[in-house]
Amino acid sequence: MNKRIEIDEKIFQEAVKFYGAVFSIPPLASKIYAYLLFDYDKVGITFDEFVEVFCASKSSVSTSITLLLNAELIVDHNKMDERKRYFFINDGYKKLRFEKIVQKMKDELKLLDDLDHFKKKNDDEGNDEKMEAYKALLNKNIINIQESLNKL
Questions:
Q1: What is the pTM of this model?
Q2: In this predicted structure, what is the pLDDT of residue 92?
């Protein structure tokens, strides 16, 4: 791998595996994302650099970059005096990711409340203790994550 930025191969491989699974992205997209993590100085990585570093076809790199851009995992910028696009990790994605997690938990809570309401209407049995504990856990995590997001 010809690389312009310094990476730790072991950490890189772990990041490729981890982010590929977390974001459900294909291997090359995961490699591009993991590689960008090592761009500490935020100088940006060009399309041609990705083609060279990963020895991948231009169409494969283009497809992976488009996927990452559409998922808002990365952003691109053009420098004023150049035609090249430079790609960077989207630092705002961390906040977006947790906002999506909170929304999923809220959606699940609403669904569970609707099911509980339906059950009571048809069954008239008491609340399930485990379900109430689960809903309390969801509520507690929603509050905790939202408080942390407000600090970002």
A1: 0.76
A2: 85
